[in-house]
Each structure stands twice: as structure tokens, then as C-alpha cells.
Amino acid sequence: MKSYSSDxxxxxxxxxxxxxxxxxxxxxxxxxxxxxxxxxxxxxSNIRDGSMVxxxxxxxxxxxxxxxxxxxxxxxxxxxxxx
Length: 83
Known about the structure:
The chain is α+β, with helices and mostly antiparallel strands and 83 residues long. The chain is 18% helix and 27% strand. The chain is built from 2 helices and 3 strands. It is globular.
């Protein structure tokens, strides 16, 4: 899973507590997240149930140690996603 957080130093170890898992239908209805995935080069065929999760990131002390709601892409792998 890849997360992007502007509040953490590069190369930091991050722990993500998954709070919700998006279905493909959720992503298509919301459009914003679907379009963001497409714009980053992820093919439509890899956007499936479980391709995006909402979670809290815990990291490296300071402000990012507090739970922050983040969205993360879960790459398609061996025919399965995190869902």
C-alpha cells in the first residue's frame, strides 16, 4: 500500500490503520478518487473493490503521530486486492 502524507519526513516508517474499504462502485460514483487514480497512471482494469482504503496514519513523532484521515491506493496483486 502506498500512502502520501505531506506531514511526514521522506522514508519514514508509517503505520496505517484501515478504517474503511472502497468498492469499485463507490469510486465510480464519487468520481474524484477514480479520476485521481486514472490520472496517476493506474489502469481502469486495476481499479477494483478494495483498490482504495481510508485509514489513520501513525508516524515518527510530532504532528503526524496523531491520527490523520488519509486515503491510500492498494495495488492489484495476483488477482486479489486487500478487500
